[in-house]
Design goal:
The chain has a single domain, classed as Beta-lactamase (3-Layer(aba) Sandwich), CATH 3.40.710. Helices cover 21% and strands 16% of the residues. By secondary structure, the chain is α+β, with helices and mostly antiparallel strands.
């Protein structure tokens, strides 16, 4: 078994064992964090930060987390909406006038957050270097026509979503998305997460390890630009702000930031959102076939919704349920129902509080196996009125070729067991 460092409460001992087992097999290095009511109850790490297994994964090791950057970007938009500075139902052009070109006057801010804006890729040929030019990337998006009627269909905006939401944030605040996140989110929370990484942090970055093979994107929506794993290991990539793909952090920082949604908007005495602001994340925006992912998806406001899964932690510390996702997703919020009399339902779901943040990522062909991330989610409820909120995140820097689907195969669909029932409302994931 691999040696695991850090602290882990006894009731979460299974997580330590699973991390050690993972590192003893295919994975190279990883960190795991669990927050309950905003406080860390698990903060462990192990393995190595390089493919040659010569540099140990340390407490402060960070890595490029790809689309786990998206929940950070979505959180910025939710914060501005909660402050009354951004109307999620307003046309994007109300904040970004040039965006109204080519029939996009009906694109709303919420469409950007739910992958329904019709701008999943750039129409003009793009190079990776073009992603480092914010003005060029956003100007090209502002000038192109949507591929479908906004809000009626969905297609995963793998790289464009960050530029679209980020430009709206810049127009509203006068600050780049990375600067807003650093000053309004990471800074107040003390979270070691960066969108646009300063050179001083380079020595502690674990490089992305490419997988053995890469899968091509859908033929009708080719990747533009085509991203290769090794791009994330370059200085220009790290210095740029690519708010859908180049965030750098570790389990501790991702868990800390996203536990804001699990804890009603306040963590460690820092209030970033009201409870109503947190609830916006699970407002359903789309349910149906995703034209890019090639499967059915369910999108909220910056977070993708998951079918209910009972995920409970027994008093003995053992997990009573696990959600091992088959489809791509990078994070989310679990909402549990509150059946107490007088509680009002909202957004079609039973009333209640957001009970836990769920950040889940699997190796999925659309990402070309850029990084391996997996997640175990734990939620528990204490007797009486008190509610515990848990956020867990597992980050792995190596590929798991055995878990990849062959290029000719479609992503497997999740099947509900016969007779399965659940009183839970949907969990969500950031996509």
């Amino acid at each position: 078994m691999a040696e695991i460092h850090g602290v882990c409460e006894d009731r979460f001992g299974e997580m330590r064992e699973m991390l050690a087992a993972s590192l003893a097999k295919d994975d190279v290095g990883a960190s795991v964090a669990v927050y309950v009511d905003g406080e860390p109850v698990v903060d462990i790490w192990g393995g190595y930060a390089d493919a040659a297994r010569t540099v140990p994964w340390e407490r402060d090791t960070i890595t490029n987390v790809w689309s786990t950057t998206k929940p950070m970007t979505a959180l910025c938009a939710l914060i501005l909406a909660d402050r009354g500075e951004l109307d999620l139902a307003a046309p994007v052009a109300a904040y970004w006038p040039e965006f109204a070109a080519a029939g996009k006057e009906r694109v709303l801010v919420r469409h950007l957050l739910s992958h329904t804006a019709g701008l999943p890729v750039w129409d003009e040929p793009m190079t990776v270097e073009d992603l480092y030019d914010w003005h060029l990337a956003t100007t090209r998006l502002a000038g192109q026509a949507p591929r479908w009627e906004p809000g009626t269909e969905a297609g995963y905006h793998a790289a464009t979503q960050g530029f679209l939401v980020g430009e709206v944030v810049r127009r509203v605040t006068g600050r780049s998305l990375g600067a807003f996140f650093a000053e309004e989110v990471a800074g107040p929370l003390g979270a070691d997460f960066h969108i646009g990484l300063a050179a001083e942090h380079d020595p502690r970055v674990s490089p992305v390890i490419p997988p053995p093979t890469l899968m091509e994107p859908p033929s009708d929506l080719p990747a533009n630009p085509l991203l290769r794993p090794e791009e994330a290991n370059t200085a220009p990539w790290r210095r740029a702000e690519i708010p859908a793909a180049n965030g750098h952090g570790n389990a501790r920082s991702v868990g800390l930031v996203q536990s804001v949604l699990a804890c009603g908007g306040t963590v460690r005495g820092v209030r970033l959102l009201s409870e109503e602001g947190c609830a916006r994340a699970v407002e359903e925006q789309f349910r149906g076939f995703d034209r890019v992912l090639g499967t059915r998806m369910w999108y909220g406001m910056g977070y993708g919704l998951l079918e209910p899964r009972p995920l409970l932690l027994g008093r003995d510390g053992r997990l009573a349920g696990r959600d091992r996702p088959r489809r791509p997703h990078d994070g989310g919020v679990r909402h549990e129902p509150d059946a107490r009399p007088g509680r009002r339902p909202w957004h079609g779901f039973p009333a209640g509080r957001l009970r836990g943040v769920v950040l889940l990522t699997d190796l999925w062909p659309l990402y070309s196996g850029l990084i391996g991330l997996s997640m175990i989610v734990v939620c528990e409820s204490s007797p009486g009125e008190r509610e515990d909120h848990a956020c867990a995140f597992v980050q792995v820097s190596s590929p798991r070729a055995s878990r990849r689907w062959p290029p000719s195969a479609s992503p497997p669909r999740r099947r509900r067991p016969a007779g399965h029932t659940s009183a839970n409302t949907p969990a969500t994931r950031s996509v």
